[in-house]
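lol so apparently i was supposed to do this last week
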Amino acid sequence: MSQTSLCLFCAFIIIFTGVKYLKRQIKVGIPRALSYYTFYPLWRVFLEKLGAGVVVSTATNRKILEEGIKETVNDACIPIKVFHGHVFDLAGRVDFIFIPRMISADGKSTFCPKFLGLPDMVRFAGVALPVLIDVRYNRKGFPGGLLRFFLAVAAKIGMRNPLTQIYAAICAIHKQKQYQRLLLKGLKPLEAIEVIFGQKKSHDFAGKGKNQKTSSEKRTTVALLGYPYAIYDSFISAGVYDKLVRLGVEVITFEQIPLKEMRRFSKIMPQNFFWYYSNQVCWAGLYLLEQKSSIDGIIHITAFGCGPDAMVDKTLELEAKYAGVPFLSLTIDEHTGEGGVQTRLEAFVDMLHARKTINRAG
Ligand code: SF4
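anyway here it is w/ iron/sulfur cluster bound
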């Protein structure tokens, strides 16, 4: 091969590789933790419609938990430790990691301080990471906190076409609403995600939810209250939700409470909490206690070291006592074992069954 043809060949390879690199789809990693359980469809659809590929971290396992524990401050709660593990799981596989600074989702309350500082905690954890998308998610203010958020995310990944941005935002909001409707019907977040992204059909989950009165009227019903990232991460909650279902219990979570009832309780509470998820848990608890014939007991899942839960747990406990509804508080941390949780659930459910039998006989 002559020297000129060799040079031409090399130039072709360089140009080809360069064009291929430029055309390579940007990959954005979403940690399967914390706000994932509430907002994943919104994040995913927006990013995909902008042309990015979305990679979700592996489901929580022992390795993810241990990696998270190693690099997190000691006094963090288990959801924050696990979140770090999910971020490290994505490092090296993606170009960006999506860690929005969650400030306010309803324009009134804020997220807990650990959410607010999350991007900084992760950035300074001492592990090399891709670029973080740490845009502020703050629905407070006008015009359009959500639109402001979307535009900032798009700018961060270099997608600047305004028409594409608006189209992506509309599709994302539409998908998020679909997701919330499925949660309201009683699907768990992972089930609803499978349905809206076409991996399963909604009739695969037919028979689920509080609307199935005929089969559930005789069943013991428990309000399982707590933050979605604790309840639905079956590794950190030791599978409480599924254990209750296996014990023959019908489970209600705060996602199944209609929005108008939540709003009503936000006005009834003499003083709402400062924190978004704490309010959701408390309003749901108060609503279910008001309808106390609809539940036989309340289980509150709380993370060891959670500041907001110190108040939420006590409020729920006192309100349940006042309403005469049995209440169980389950604290989770990295040492929580399946066996211990199973024993406590069995004892609680047995007591609820016995109580029901006595009430019926009386
Ligand atoms: S609300 Fe509690 S459990 Fe949730 S992140 Fe904050 S401290 Fe942790």
